[in-house]
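To: structure desk
From: M.T.
Subject: fold request, one chain
Message: Could you run this one when you get a chance? Sequence is below, nothing fancy, just the single chain.
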Amino acid sequence: MDDRLKLGCHVGMSGKEMMLGSVKDALRFGANTFMLYTGAPQNTRRKDISELRIDDAKELMRENGIEEFVVHAPYIINLANAVKPETFDIAREFLALEIQRTEKMGSKILVLHPGSHVGEGVETGVKQIIKGLNEVLSVDSTVNIALETMAGKGSEIGRSFEELAMIYDGVVNNNRLRVCFDTCHTSDAGYDIIGDFDGVIDRFDKIIGKDQIAVFHMNDSKNEPGAAKDRHENFGFGKIGFDALMYVMYHKDFMDVPKILESPYIKDPDNAKKSYEPFKHEIEMIRSGKFNPAMIEDILSERK
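Reply: Done. Structure tokens follow.
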């Protein structure tokens, strides 16, 4: 398969090694890019930037030819909330800090869930998102906010390309915007990426521009297309399937775009408290170009 593929996964960042540990995990999985959160995605508690071991991490990246990585903003940021001003204020202030942290860590991409309008309607939610982004996006920043395509559950904004385009249209410094294309989410939202990915991309190109896709989340789905549920499955084992995902993975228009796995961990059938990361096996399978239907059994057998 093509050696140019930029393939990685979500890695943790914790303990004494912090970002250095993140890079070590990526290398252990056979990745040449990766994605991390600057702290727990469910809260705003963050270590000081001086404790993240950024220089050590960057040196290890240089030694192993890793040129770029992606940061994901925490889920609790909801710029679309027009019901509780305090929720919007916290989201805006913390996003501004996340942009600073992303820049200091050396990434140019910060993935952001656009937000949920919590019952106030798409138009109101989009206006709030635009307001927040206009307050945090500066012209001279090196960090781009990559709005993630969403599955459409609840009151999520970003379930359609048109909704993302509405945000683009309202943001003053929209040159700082990009898109994170999540395969599970777009399939769950009803786009036919299984049978007509090129048609989906043509539509995206007309509405936003395919050059705006800065990262792919390469996720299979537990759900049938259009289910609007957002439940990831291991690569090739879900309703999207190996062949359709591989078509996206090696698409000629996106070879320079990082592809990130966010697959669920494999649960130990004999111990509910244990689960195992699948990324090393998934990356090996993708780079070989051959689906391994026994991958999950292989992972579990190795742990016994």
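Reply (cont.): The first helix runs from residue 18 to 28. Let me know if you need anything else for the meeting.
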